[in-house]
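tokens incoming
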């Protein structure tokens, strides 16, 4: 019995040992398989990278080859050669067109600048026609028209006064032996300088341009121009006060209105880059400017009136409710007054006009899209110069 027990124990021990060897071998095989699988995957990835690199190098070579062929006209096919020639021709024409456009733009800018300077000289000389000294002599011969002489404008008159006063101050400090002579000289200077003033002369203006209707002035600004009226609204867009072609044009009346003596008259002027014509109408967008410039001096024929601004605003040139050229009756006129009065961007210390008033509306362009800046004013008292 003991022998059987020993045999059974040895047999069971053998079976356990066999089982151990089996699982040990299996575990080793699994590890080996994992390592081999990892190696295969790494090999596959490296292979794919190599293939990708080769593909990229092939594409770069092909691209270089294609570009090389493009740069060489001889390597192109006949169809490609024809296309390349057409492309080069078109590119050349575009460059030429751009050059011509640049030259034209430069010419236009130069022409505009020269027009500005020429226009400035002419209006300065025209203004000189109305500056009189104590003897009634003007700065230029009114019957001779514009001769390009430099005008003596208001600022220059002030400078003359300052010069005269400075001279008086200097002469008063001289010795007693020359006091009488210096005093006489000083009196003459004072009288001559102080008496220089701007005096409207409608007859002289008519000799210069028979289509003149009046004059408009806004103190402290460059708005000091004669007013004209033609049989259409195109002429004075491109003609100056001397009726010579000029891009700056002139200040003119809309021929469709009843004129300066009508119920409502529209005046047009360019918004010039150099600040001339109606450029300073744009300044009425500023409240401080409105406060400082509530009135205009308007000369109509041989008469001088003060006009009071009552409305400033922007509008469209196609707005028929603003740009009206006549009124069916008093009620229609009053409706227009109410409309433009309510549009004002600034409240002036003036009354609201009535249908008994004579109204002028100044209009200038804001841009090329039909936007306009407008200043409306009514006639006040007549001034006796």
């Amino acid at each position: 019995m003991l022998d059987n027990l020993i045999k059974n124990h040895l047999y069971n021990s053998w079976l356990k040992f066999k089982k151990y060897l089996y699982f040990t071998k299996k575990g080793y095989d699994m590890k080996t398989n994992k390592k081999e699988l990892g190696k295969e995957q790494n090999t596959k990835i490296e292979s794919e990278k190599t293939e990708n690199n080769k593909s990229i190098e092939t594409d770069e070579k092909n691209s270089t080859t294609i570009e090389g062929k493009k740069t060489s006209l001889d390597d192109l096919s006949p169809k490609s050669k024809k296309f390349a020639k057409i492309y080069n021709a078109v590119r050349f024409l575009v460059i030429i067109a751009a050059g011509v456009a640049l030259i034209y733009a430069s010419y236009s800018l130069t022409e505009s600048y020269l027009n500005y300077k020429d226009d400035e000289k002419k209006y300065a000389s025209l203004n000189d026609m109305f500056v009189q000294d104590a003897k009634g002599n003007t700065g230029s011969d009114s019957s001779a028209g514009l001769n390009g002489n430099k005008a003596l404008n208001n600022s220059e008159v002030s400078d003359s006064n300052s010069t005269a006063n400075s001279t008086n101050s200097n002469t008063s400090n001289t010795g007693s032996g020359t006091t009488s002579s210096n005093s006489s000289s000083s009196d003459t200077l004072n009288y001559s300088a102080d008496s220089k003033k701007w005096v409207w002369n409608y007859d002289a203006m008519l000799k210069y341009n028979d289509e003149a209707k009046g004059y408009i002035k806004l103190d402290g600004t460059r708005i000091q121009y004669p007013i004209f009226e033609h049989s259409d609204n195109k002429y004075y867009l491109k003609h100056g006060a001397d009726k010579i072609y000029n891009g700056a044009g002139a200040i003119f009346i809309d021929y469709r209105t009843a004129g300066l003596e009508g119920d409502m008259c529209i005046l047009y002027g360019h918004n010039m880059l150099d600040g001339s014509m109606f450029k300073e109408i744009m300044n009425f967008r500023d409240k401080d400017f409105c406060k400082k410039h509530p009135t205009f001096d308007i000369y109509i024929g041989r008469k001088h009136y003060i006009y009071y601004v009552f409305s400033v605003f922007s509008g469209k040139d196609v707005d028929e409710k603003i740009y009206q050229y006549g009124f069916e009756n008093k009620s229609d006129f009053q409706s227009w007054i109410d409309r433009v009065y309510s549009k004002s961007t600034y409240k002036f210390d003036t009354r609201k006009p009535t249908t008994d008033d004579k109204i002028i509306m100044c209009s200038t362009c804001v841009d090329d899209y039909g936007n306009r800046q407008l200043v409306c004013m009514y006639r006040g008292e007549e001034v006796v110069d």
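note: The beta strands are 131-132, 197-198, 212-217, 224-228, 251-253, 264-268, 295-300, 303-316, 359-365, 371-383.
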